Structure formats: structure tokens, C-alpha cells
Amino acid sequence: MNPETQSREPRRAKKPLNGNHVPSEVIDSARSGASPSVAPASVHALMGWYETPGELYKACEALRDAGYQRFDAHTPFAVHGLEHAMGLRPSRLPWIVLGGGLFGLVGSVLLAWYTQGVDYPQNISGKEAFSYQAFIPVFFELTVLCAAFATFFGMWSMNKLPRFFHPVQTHPSFERATDDLFFISVEAADPKYDRVATKRLLASLGAHELCEVGS
Amino acid sequence: MSTLSYPHDDPAVRPELLPGKRDFRGITRQVSGIVEAKTPTGWKLAIAFTLSVLMILFGSLFRLVTKGTGVWGLNTTVGWAWDITGFVFWVGIGHAGTLISAILFLFRQKWRTSINRAAEAMTIFAVMSAAIYPVFHVGRVWFAYWLFPVPNQMQVWPNFKSPLFWDVCAVSTYATVSLLFWFVGLVPDLATLRDRADTKTKQIVYGILALGWRGSHRHWLNYEKAYQIFAGLSTPLVLSVHTIVSFDFAVSVVPGWHTTIFPPYFVAGAVFSGFAMVVTLMVMARRFLGLGNLITIHHLENMNKIILATGSIVGYAYGIEFFTAWYSGNPYEKFVFLNRAFGPYSWAYWTMVSCNVIFPQLFWFKKVRTSVPLMFVISILVNIGMWFERFVIVVTSLHRDYLPSSWTYFKPSLFDISTFIGTFGLFFTMLLLFVRYLPMVAIGEVKSILPAADPHAAHDHTEARHES
Amino acid sequence: MSTPINDASKARITSLDPARAKKLVGAATALLVASVALSIVAALVDRQRFAFSYLTGFVWLATIGLGALFFVLIQHLTRAGWSVIPRRQLEWLTGLLPASAALFLPVAFFAHDLYHHWMGPEAHGDPLIQKKAAYLNPTFFFVRAAVFLAVWSGLSLWFWRTSRKQDESGDKELTLRMAARSAPAIILLGLTLTFAAFDWLMSLDPHWYSTIYGVQVFSGSAVSSLAALALLTLALERKGILEGITTVEHRHDIGKLLFGFTVFWAYIGFSQYLIIWYGNIPEETVYFRERWEGPWKVVSLVLVFGHFVVPFIALISRTAKRSRFVLGAAAALILAMHYVDIYWLVMPTLGERGAVPSWVDVCGLIGPLSAGLLVIARRAAGGPLYPVRDPRLAESLQFQNT
């Protein structure tokens, strides 16, 4: 199936919302061989898309093997194993979670110690004021709660989200990155970046709608 | 004995989870379509109905707050009845959502992707319905924050040794973590809705909720890790919640409550009732939202198998409790159990046994497991049975205590009944809002289990094997 | 999707080298003979202590077999794919169950020493035991034991033989048949395990009762059988025998299950403890009081740390579960701690002196242990090291964690 020939879903008169949309710098892929006419004032990245996760995977491998560092894939779902093709290191999130969990554990023990043992000791069914057995459910719950907060906020902050706008969102077809297309973006800031050579590399692997997006 | 006459019986071949030719775009369209379509009349009628039931809840709670908890049918002997029954009933239902989103994820049960979003939503709404009870049972609801350890002018702290305080910690943690987990799962799909939005309002609302998600694989890497960690945290959490609910009873010395099997037995019962509710809801989703091709008969059958397994565990617990009551040689233990089965509440007891232990056993037959009308009926029976289970545990253990002069027969008041009915109004109103405004199937996750999602679909698997 | 199954037949080693196999069986047989002699000496010197030591060793072995049977059944029930290869090692371990049927004979022989509270004459003066006499009486006890052992041996042999038959024939029908029978088999297993735990362990103190007891013994069985599986897999890998068959991915999954069931064991143990501690009813708290006073407190603490805290911390990270060393060390620790766990259930019957380990305990363990080793060695020597013609073998070979 070729998404270009496939009938586009009836587009409901959608206008780009962000002002700095790059006027469609659509460069047809290797097929037409046309070269770009106008370049945006300040280029953020070269972008294009593939039809299948497999093609994207190969393109990422090619970029990785060519020594590119600052490139990214944008996909509608997590493509299994793509981090290997991109040469990414495993996420360091578990360490943040461990910290959150330890904070919750120590914090809950201190809370129980102060409120139950020191500030307001109560004699409940003859048990010691600080009865650790009876506090274990509380320790557990607060540990999990803090670990979960650490996971949630840790993940979003590692991803630098939420954010209002990112240049890659100006690619004319980018709304389909959350639907059925598999995008690649190579940042102009990458030392290996070369407008022509990078484009040729991606196009040779079947990229569509290659164009530069501004920052 | 089955034979190899059907191709899907071949153990070497895994049946396609979503049969037929499915593409990414089609899934996006189908699920987003439910949200993007014009509001159907059926939905309007349904929400009008559930809102009026919700009004019953508001009315009952208004009466409760203005008059006091005396409007419920409680008395000195039975000081806890429909309130705690309703609470445990709703919390239990929530457990299936977490089981599907967390435990089935850890066990790599990919079929969960079609139902996990709706089941997680159900968890959150069930916990909301459950929370009504403890919050309003405190009487002066405006002081409900005293349940938490916050410094206050009376210079007292809540009692950490109270199982009810454990409950406060467990249920609030559970609600929070479930909400975070659910929201994390929703973000990529909200981004899909944002990118398809056709009005400015939708674009702004979904845009804010989607947090600027752009599907970056550098993000997916952290995201998937977070998902895994949430699953890892939710698994012991969900066990702890119903364990702690069971401690509400089990750490007391009331015969019929104080028994060591309560924690695992309550957890199994919770999963049992929750899956029954998921089956009820998914059968309706297939019927009214046309999701039959995403939630297939295979999904329903798998859930029915879990109902059968957990129902059998519940049956095991009933049996062991009864046996041990006799084996203990303790006359009070023995009395409570005989009283349950043959006393004034025997009707409730046998309703419970037949709904929870007997009817689910019909799922041994594949014909029953795969028959939509039959499973719908059985799932509702299980829900009824599990409500009765909590009622039987709570009321039969209390109504005849050590002092025969205080023996009584509990009857619910009008407000007991109306409050409970009202919680269904809350639950279904929330669910209807959910299916109308949020993607009720995890779009991204379903796509990821299609054969086309595998980047190595075309070439050999062995290559990936060497990389690890 | 489907990689050809002949992937497995690529000149890979499928069974043990016959010379090595013979050596293994010979060593186990020699150990068994020696242990019989040792046991007789120990029984003559200290009959009572030996009875309890032997019961501990016997239950330790039988529960490992029961846990293994549970996992074999659950894998058939869930149509698991990843675990086809390690299922064979679990099947070896289920061989401990028919062996247990024979190993039960000394328990039967010493029954009056072990269960003298309710089998002996003092039962007549005890009204509480009189009430339970319909259940706790020698005849019914032996009948039940015979039923339990017959059910376990029957299940274990049927699933083992069927699996071996498939090695020969490659008949896919057998997979379906095992899946179909696994569901009722699990129910049978659950009930027999529960009542065996009541009979053989809980009735050591016939006054005390706990409804969770069966689940508690089950949790120990599950975790110990996984530990044994991890050790067997690692041992085969170490000798280079399963090279390229089991991978780090299988190890990782075994590690995950081991970690999960360690937590499950602690969860069940803690639930029982908290309910009894909090309720504070003397008839029940006596159980923990016996185990939390004097030298028994040391044993309890060893159990808390050795069976839960240390393996929990050791196995929590992904790297640890994938590491041969950490997984192996944790599995060995858990297997040892499973012995302490059973010891903690059985030996307090002897009072404080039970807490102090004695040479007799070694004699009680070595018999069941060597019999178990012999069974495993024979099964390992007698056939393929993994289900060579299982229809889902390819899936297990390709399995990868995400």
C-alpha cells in the first residue's frame, strides 16, 4: 500500500496553528530528483518518512553506522528494538524510581516514628506505640506512591515534556506520525549533517517527503 | 478430546490476535471515530438515564450529610453493612483493570491491548464509587481530610495502627497510581486525537492533554521503561489494596472475619468480580460501539477463563474456611459458619455460593465460554454473587454476636439502597463520558501487536537474536 | 513468524554424554546407599530427633517436586511458548514426586513419634483433639497420605511420559491433550497440597490452625522449585551442554519468576503473621511465640533475611536476573532457605532444642536429597535435554525479553 496514492482521509480544513511553519519545503524523494529551491532561514532538521517500521529501522541503522548522533525517529507506537538501530543507551529512569521509592520508605518510617512514637503515642490494644508490624502496610503504600510519582515526573522531565511546540511538528505530514507514518529527523546541528549527502542517504532508503524544517 | 481438525488448534501456530487484514490507519480511524463522530442519540439517552441515577446518589448523600449516618439501616449490633459492602464491592471491581494493565503486561499477554484502556478507566471510576462510602461515612464530610496525617489544631495524629488508616493509604495510593498509569498510557493516543482534531477547541484541549507528544523514539525509550515500572509497581500494589481491605476484617477478633486466608482470598475475589464487570462492559462495547473486530470472541474467552480460575480459587477459600471452622474445634467459629449457611441469612449465603462457585463452572465448556449471551448473564451473576459475598461476610458475622439478647436481623433502609444504586449512576456516567471523549482502546498499543509493526517482519528473526 | 523447526536439529547436543551420565547416576546411587546407612545410625542414636529431621528433609524434597509440577501444569494450561526448553528441567524435578511416595515410608514408620499429640495415648485426655478425631485419626491419615502420593505420582508420571512420547513422535495432539488435562490436574494438585500440608505439618501441633497454611506451603514449593530450576539450567549451561539452547533470555525470565515468588512467599508469610499478631488470641499467637523466643528467634530472623530481604535486593535489577552469578547465588540461597523454612515449620515441635542444628538433621536430609539427585540424574541421562519436538520449541528458541 502506498499512502501517497491511497486516498487521504478527507482533511477537515486544517490550518497549521503555529506561526513559524516552514512553507512546504517538499522535496520529492529520489524519484523526482529535484533539488531544494528555498531553504528556511534557520534549519532545525531534515525530515522524511517511511511507510513501514522495517524501512525506518534500516534508515536508523544506516544513520547510526554513518556516525550520526543527533537524529530521531517519530512513530505512532514504540517500534520494538529501534533503540538498538539508533544506538541508544537503555533508559536511566529506574535510578530515579529507586530514589523515589527509597525516599518514600525512609519518609514513611520517619513519619510513623514522629507521629506515632514521639508526638502522639497512643495505646491501642496494648501494642507498643511504635509497632513496626502494624506500620508495614503504610510503609509499603507510601514507598509505592513515591516511586510512582518519581516514575511519572521522572519520565516526563527526562523527555522534556510537556512543551508547546517542537520544530519537527512543522513537517507538512507530521500529523500522521501519530497515525501510520514512520518519520525520521536528522538535526542540522549534527556534525555529520550535510544537506545533500544526508538527504541522499535517507532517500536511497526510500524516504518520502524529505524536507528541512526550521527552528 | 479435541482433534487437529481446526487449523487454530495447531499448537505450533499462534492464532492472529486480530484476525483479518488490519492496517494502522484503519485502527486509528476506528477508535478515533467513536470520539469524533456526532454525538449519537443512544449515548444522549444513556447519559440522561445515568445522570438521573447519579442524582439519586446526590440526593441520598445530601440526606446523609444533613441528617447523619442514622439514615442508613445500621444498628448497635450491625454497625457496618451496606456501606462497607458497597465499598469493598467497588474496590474489588477496580482490580481487574490493574490486573489487565499490569500483570498481564508482565506476562506478555498481548491480547490485553484491546481491553486495557477501558479496563483501567473502569478501575478509576470504580475506585471513585468506592471512595464515596468511607468519605461520607465519616459523617462530617468537610473534615474528611482528618483521615490523612496533616498537622492540625487539635495536635493529634491519625492512628497508624488502625487498618482503616491503612485503607486510606492503600486506596488513595491505588487511585493515584492508577490515574498516573492510565494517563501515561493515554498520552500517545491523545496526541493522535490532537493531530486529527477538526476544531480549535479539540485541538487545544487534546493538545494540552497530549503534553506535546511527538512520538520521538528517544521518548518512547523512557516511556516504555516507565510503563514497565508502572506495571511492576502496580502488581504488588493491587495485591496490597485488597489485602489491606481484607485486614479491615481479618485483624479483628470477630469469628468469621478473623481468619488468615483472607488476604489472598480477597485478592482472588476482587479479580474475579472485576473480570466479570469487564466482560459485562466489553460485551456492551462490542454491541453498541461496533468494536467486535478489536475485542474479539477470543478476548472474551480468555477473560472467561480467568473468571473460571479465580472463581475456583474463591470456591477453594470458602471450602477451606468451612473446613477449618470445624477443624478448629472453636464453637464460635463453627457457629458463625453454620449460621451463614443455615441461619436467617442462608438465602444470601446460597445466592453467593451459586453465583460465585456454581455458575462460573459452566465456563469449563467452550460453548459457554464463547457464547456472548451466556457469558453476559454469567458475568452479571458473578457481580451479584460478589456483592453478596461481602454482604455475607460483613452482616452474618455481626448480626448474632456473643450476647444473644443483642441478636438482630439487619434490614437496609431506603437510603442504603438508594446510595448503592446511586454509585452505579456515578460509575456509568463516568464511563459514558470516557467513551465519548477519550480513546477507549489503546490505539498505539493495538497497532504495536499487528504483524506489520514488527520491524523484522520481512527478514529473519535470528539477526535480532544476535544483538542482545 | 514461523522459523523452521529444524532450527533445533542443527547438530546441537540434545542429550547428555553417556559416559558422563553413567558417572552421574553412579555417584547419586553411591550417595543414596551411604545415606541409608547414615540414617539407620542416626535413627538408632536419637530416634525422636531423626523422625523430625527426616520429616523436614522429606517435605523439603516433596515440596520442590510439587512446585515443579505446578509450573509444568501452568505452562500447559497457559500454552506458554517461552518456557518450552526449561520445562524439561521442571519435568525432571517432578520425578521427585514418585520418589516421595517411597520416601514417605519412613514418615509412616515414625508417625507415632511425629504426631504423638493426636496419635498417641495423650489424645484421649484432650477434649479438643477428641472433637477432631473424625479427621485426625491414624487410619484416615494414612488413607489420605496414600491418596495424595498416588495423585502426585500419577500426575507427574503421566505428564512426564506424555512429554517424552512427544520427543519420539512429535505428535502435536499430545500438546493439546496435556493442555486439556492440566486444568483439572491443577485443581487436584491444589487440594492435595493443602491437605497434605495440614496433615503432615500443621497437625504437628493439633490445637493450632490457620486457613492460609496450604497457600503458605504452596508459596514455598513454588519458589524452591524455581530455585532448583535455575540451578539445573545454570549447571547445564556451565558445562556447555545447553549452549545456544537456553539463553540469557530464559535466565532472565526464570529470574523474574524467582523474584516474584520470593515476594509472594513473603506476602503470604507476612499476612498470616500480621493477622495473628494483631488479633492477639492466645490459641493462635502461641505459634509465633514458640518461634520468636530463645534460639528460635535466630532461625526466624535468618528466614526473614535469607528467604526474603537478601534475595529481594539481589534480584531486583534486570542486570542481576540476567547474571549467571547473581541468579545462581540467589537460587542456591533460596533452596537452602527453603530447608530452613520447612525446619521452621517442623522443628519447634521439639521445643528449644529443636532450634539448635544437630548432625542428625544432616542425616535426615541426606536420604531424601540423594534419592532426589538420583531421580534427576536418571531422568537427565535417559533422554533429550529439552523437548526436541515440541511444536512450540521454535518459539522458545527465539524468545526475547522486551
- Give the class of chain A from helix and strand content and strand pairing: alpha+beta
Q: What level of helicity do the residues of chain A show?
A: 25-40%
Approximate strand percentage of chain A:
5-15%
How confident overall, as mean pLDDT of chain A? 85
What integer value in Å does the Rg of chain A equal? 26 Å
Helix content of chain C: over 70%
Radius of gyration of chain C: 21 Å
Q: What is the end-to-end distance of chain C?
A: 17 Å
Major sheet of chain A: size, sense and barrel closure? 4 strands, antiparallel
Strand order of the largest sheet of chain A: 2-3-1-4
Detailed description of the structure:
The complex is a heterotrimer of chains A (about 220), B (about 475) and C (about 400). Chain A is an alpha+beta fold and about 220 residues long. Helices cover about 40% and strands about 10% of the residues of chain A. Chain A has two domains: about 20-90 and about 170-215, no CATH class; about 95-160, no CATH class. In chain A, helix 3 packs antiparallel against helix 4 (about 130-160). Residues about 1-35 of chain A have low confidence and may be disordered. By secondary structure, chain B is mainly alpha-helical. Chain B is globular and about 70 Å long. Chain C is an all-alpha fold and about 400 residues long. In chain C, about 75% of the residues lie in helices and about 0% in strands. Classes of the chains: A alpha+beta (about 220), B mainly alpha (about 475), C mainly alpha (about 400). Chains in contact: A-B, A-C, B-C. Chains A and B meet through helix 1, strand 2, helix 2, helix 3 and helix 4 of A and helix 1, helix 5, helix 7 and helix 15 of B.
